[in-house]
Amino acid sequence: MNELQSTFAVSQRRACRAVDQPRQTQRYQAKVRDDEPALVEDILKLVGEYPRYGYRLICGKLRQLGWTINPKRVYRIWKQEGLKVPVKKRKKRRLGNKNNSAQRHAAEHINHVWSWDFIFDRTASGKQLKWLVIIDEFTRENLCLEIGYGFKSEDVIDCLVALSAERGRPGAIRNPSLSPTDHW
């Protein structure tokens, strides 16, 4: 407003009328409260003591300390100080024992760990096909690929026995959908 007055050599009243602004906005002086530094200090002290409290609970604690305070004032100071309630980190619960853990140890040599799983597909006529896949995790070599309409547990065991006779026994056998079969 001062720049407008000096540029056009007009009074404050005319400059305010030109920009359609009340004169009180030019003359207003913000009232600085005497208790503001003490209030900020108490808020920061309470935030250090109760880090999970937001501005509303801090306002309640201030009232317990004897402050007559509005939550909007606490919110304004809260924002000025850049305070935030930290996000609570949830702990992941571990299920089962160490053998069933989701942590997978990498294979260290050939025949250390074999992994097997089923893959499903459909023929053009709509019949479901099941593929048994067994791989060596160290070399990523496909050891067995059997295709059929259905597999029984005996079929999987027969395939594993034939592979172990041909290549030697693995240190462990894994299936992603089942618990690991260690020391097979």
From TrEMBL:
Pfam families: HTH_21. It comes from the Bacteria. Residues 38-91 form the HTH-like domain. This is IS2 transposase TnpB. It comes from Mariniblastus fucicola.
